[in-house]
Amino acid sequence: MAGDVEITVDSRSVREAIEKIKRYQRHKLKDVEQAVNDTALDVHADAVRRSPVVTNRYRSSLHIQTGSPQRHTYTDNEGHSFDGMINVTVPKMGAIVGTNVEYALSVERRHFVLSRAAQINRPKFRKRIIDILNKK
Question: What is the pTM of this model?
Answer without folding.
Answer: 0.80
